[in-house]
Amino acid sequence: MLFPEYRGRRLRATDNFRRMIRETKLSRDDLILPLFAVEGKSVKKPINSMPGQFQLSIDHIVTMAKQAKDAGIPGIMLFGIPHKKDCLATQAYAHDGIVQKSVSAVKEQVPDLTVITDVCLCEYTDHGHCGMVMDDGTIDNDSTLDLLAKTALSHVQAGADMVAPSDMMDGRVSEIRGTLDDEGFSHVPIMSYAVKYASSFYGPFREAAESAPKFGNRKTYQMDPANALEAIREATMDIEEGADIIMVKPALSYLDIIYRVREEIDLPVAAYNVSGEYSIIKAAEMMGWVDGKAMIMETLLSIKRAGADIIMTYSAIDVARELNN
What we know:
325 residues; alpha/beta; 10-stranded mixed beta sheet; globular
């Protein structure tokens, strides 16, 4: 029998051969761990739709930050659930807000860990939208920008190393960059959720962050899942406004978008392995249908292979420990 000169199986024959020619390698350096902070003490409230994830009081946030550092993860992303909400999202930019206090505590206890903060208003508004709501129910873009900038500034003043606006308001990167520069924080980078789709994969997160909109949806500001060229326009706009890192969210259903963005821009690209992607695997693992550990490793490898330099994942600590082994 005749064979082609190239036999692919030759270099698949042993584990060492496979290691030697592996094209894409997942590293703990790629990972960021998202955490949900709540008021109180000794609070570790399970998130029903995200098995293994919790709403955490500041003492537990610090514990998780230490575990992340020990596992070799370079940073965490903080989300806050305030003790009260209102139409102006006042707890988002309060100096004694839950994120601000969490940042300070982590930086005091784990100073070498990078602390990134999500900058948005949806967790803090009583209506659950990411911007200011007009009388007719529309989301007012421009009046939201000042509040987002105030929120970002308050996070940085508390010690945040990086801010990550996720609201998808037009012009918010420029507003935040200008505010930080004017206040002496020109060294603080912005990781923009530049390419954030109106996705059905966010459902578990909205339970975790208590941020589901009370009316309507977010399709007037988050992107249409059908659009790809628009992703490049959004990323380019945020780069022109001063973004240092561009994020694509979600990740797994948008690997083609990660690839396109990676090909078009020369800044670092982040991707968010979102709650729905996490929970689907966890649910199937709990049913005994899949090898959850192997599936999450394959999922993150695919995100890395598509072109992501940074991956936000709720599995960060487990994955880092697996990579360490």
